[in-house]
């Protein structure tokens, strides 16, 4: 079996004359958690959109099972890759169970009812995300952390090998951030789902990822295991700010003590 | 049993009761519409006259009142469902085929046919459909500015509506305002409708409602963010176009026969959401019944309120709908930005 779930080859993208990504190549290892990080405007959102078929590359290609994702139809793609976007909305009065069942859309025929397989996967998605007891609750009555779990459950019902998450912890406080990241880890370990996410918090990225891809100015600045690629130099390179990198239990930890900001840009 | 399940069951019960009540009300207003005017027939007399033996009064009611009643019901159902679809596609709870100019675009095209090619009257629904599509296209393109804001759609729609209504009025005046076809569209008069008008309207409304039922799942998915719906394998743009065309079809054909009516497509779905919820699987069938009821009620009130003069259903809808619309605008903060 192919060891990479997804491969990006010589990818370039620009909005008009504004080059966002220039000739980048990277791999997403199968069965691992890969996190994309970088400063604002480094191109990580664009890369995320390209990998999830929400934008089409200018040059280069993105391969899923050795086939360009351009060649997948939307529903074919939706059976291989599920995506939890940063911003989500739904009708306030539908139940969690109903919303999670939308995840079965790529498998359903027009006017067809739910199959046993659909029922089973919806049930499983609710169970894994700890939403079984809340299944009849309306979306409008949920807390932020619960909502985020519902979106993950919906993606899970899609039963895909790859799960993309765009800043899944934004707007949540630390307890729910960790709850979500722990859930992501569990999906990876127990269900062998390949995870690709964008995270803002450097320490969370280091702690929960198997692989880090750091973008800077539309190029891949760092790529590899957190242990190896997170250094004071690489942080300086990615964010333009000097931070202290120490070790706790052998893993790198970024601390803000003795930080040094560069002179403000004009 | 937990609290969520109790709420769910309550909602379930409310849905069933709402359907039962609306059906009952529809039958009630149907029979009172039959008996509104100088002739009246009892329920038994009506059944006998229709199915057993000839009855002069029943025959008169059948020829004169039935077409009008059926047209009211068909047009009401069509406009209400059209409103639901526009609201889903535009993600805008204020979208109404009348307010955003679809009906007047369709009406203008229908008026053109009636004025210039009166012999092609059978072609009117097609012309109305293209008029409706043109108006929708205008509204959509003109209000597009890095996305569609609910309020901008309404503002653009009001302008497009004013334009087409004005043009229709000009044509109506040019033809002396006497040509019944033109006047009936412009002023939404359905006084002199016959069974042939019912025959014109029926197949289109049936087709439109059938398509709407076919798209209930897609309508639900459109309530998600576009990217999320796309991630579920839905071609969002294509789905939008197809559902929009269905909505335009329903609004246009009813305008071609019954004239432009505003606010119906706004009020009925809103009340529907309060009673049966926003799931389109339930909301669309409910809006069909409630739309038929509301239009027929408005028409029946219009016939009685100033008898022997008649006030058109469209006027009644505007008088009731205007304040309702303002109330919705005031109540919800999210339309403001």
From TrEMBL, chain A:
Alphabetized PROSITE patterns for the sequence: ABC_TRANSPORTER_1, ABC_TRANSPORTER_2
Presence of keyword ATP-binding: yes
Location of the ABC transporter domain: 6-242
Keyword Signal appears in the UniProt entry: no
Topology in the lipid bilayer: Peripheral membrane protein
GO MF term list: ATP binding
Subcellular location: Cell membrane
Record's protein name: ABC transporter ATP-binding protein
Species of provenance: Hominisplanchenecus faecis
Taxonomic lineage: Bacteria, Bacillati, Bacillota, Clostridia, Lachnospirales
From TrEMBL, chain B:
Membrane topology recorded in Swiss-Prot or TrEMBL: Multi-pass membrane protein
Protein name in UniProt: Probable heme-iron transport system permease protein IsdF
Summary of the function given for this chain in its UniProt record: Part of the binding-protein-dependent transport system for heme-iron. Responsible for the translocation of the substrate across the membrane.
Coiled coil: none
Similarity comment: Belongs to the binding-protein-dependent transport system permease family. FecCD subfamily.
Keywords: Cell membrane, Iron, Membrane, Transmembrane, Transmembrane helix, Transport
SUPFAM superfamilies in alphabetical order: ABC transporter involved in vitamin B12 uptake, BtuC
Main location: membrane
Entry-linked Pfam families: FecCD (PF01032)
Localization per Swiss-Prot or TrEMBL: Cell membrane
Organism whose genome encodes this protein: Hominisplanchenecus faecis
TM segment ranges: 66-86, 98-117, 123-141, 153-171, 201-222, 242-271, 283-302, 309-329
